[in-house]
Amino acid sequence: MTQQQYExxxxxxxxxxxxxxxxxxxxLKEDHVQMMAECIRLDRECADLCAFAAKAMQxxxxxxxxxxxxxxxxxxxxxxxxxxxxxxxxxxxxxxxxRCAEMCxxxxx
Amino acid sequence: MTQQQYExxxxxxxxxxxxxxxxxxxxLKEDHVQMMAECIRLDRECADLCAFAAKAMQxxxxxxxxxxxxxxxxxxxxxxxxxxxxxxxxxxxxxxxxRCAEMCxxxxx
Amino acid sequence: MTQQQYExxxxxxxxxxxxxxxxxxxxLKEDHVQMMAECIRLDRECADLCAFAAKAMQxxxxxxxxxxxxxxxxxxxxxxxxxxxxxxxxxxxxxxxxRCAEMCxxxxx
Amino acid sequence: MTQQQYExxxxxxxxxxxxxxxxxxxxLKEDHVQMMAECIRLDRECADLCAFAAKAMQxxxxxxxxxxxxxxxxxxxxxxxxxxxxxxxxxxxxxxxxRCAEMCxxxxx
Lengths: 109, 109, 109, 109
Prior knowledge:
Chains A, B, C, D: This is Four-helix bundle copper-binding protein. The structure is a homotetramer of 109-residue chains. By secondary structure, chain A is mainly α. Helices cover 81% and strands 0% of the residues of chain A. The first copy, chain A, has one domain: Substrate Binding Domain Of Dnak, Chain:A, Domain 2 (Up-down Bundle). Chain A is built from four helices and no strands. In chain A, α1 (3-28) packs antiparallel against α2, α2 packs antiparallel against α3 and α3 packs antiparallel against α4.
């Protein structure tokens, strides 16, 4: 893993954190919150683990790879849930989640 | 503030964190998620700030008092929202929030 | 996993978070901080992941098992580092870490 | 507060989080960890509160202003400690802290 890939992975985590937090807020304001329940749950967990993964990489944690592997799994689950919904915030979130999952898998490899 | 009061405040924060996280999960499973949107939002924020306040006290942070003051405000807002709802998890959460708010105010004094 | 084991694991995580945060603070006040550098690093990461794991269990996260598996690995690393040092806070922290690692492995099984 | 100022404040918090986490890691690797103890303590707290403040803004928290006010105080304390030390990572961190404190104060106004 080059320094550039490392920095790209931190960037992807912070962007995914932002997209998930935006989506969490927007889902709570939708007319049909009921349908968004699983999305809200995963948005919270994904945003928080992305922040945790960024911190691990920024501090050169000996567990950075393992944390990124887990982050990739949660990002993928969150992306799969988000892409089911037509709202812009969900589609945008799914995109950030899949990109972050891909970067985290490279990091964990 | 005595050592005993300090420890009681940490305990109150950790109990409030638990009650808020339980309530967050239970609200997402309710038949009328719509009505619970504000509760879900505040449960997340309150749980996370309670964890932050516990960490601040456990590490003897120079900002423990200021963090506890903010924690008291968020606990009170979360408690006021939760007590509007009849669900057991909301009533239980409101009780933990008000108790934590009281302990945090003493800590911040 | 019974409900009782689940609650015991949350308890073990919160106790380990406290022991690690206490140890973090105490290490920074030691005469020979140099020797404690790795302990300080792991205390932070272990405390924060224990809080994360407790949150995951409290919210019935679909990733609770995977998070607990990772938590067990970090607790074990932190316990192994702490037990090298004679300070009471390190010995106490090692004990909490090993107990938490054990509970998290059962949870993840 | 315009949308642009809001986004600049989130950006400042995430940059400050990164500078503090970099500094935390670098301080633990210095020859004289002893001298860096207060810096290490504040780096952790500042990084974690910056992440918390970014989350609050990203989710449109009703407490975003209060959290940013507290964040400004901690950033200022961390910046004042860091600027005492000649290491590049400390000087860079102080700069990020002061910039973040300034943005957070505007946000809280």
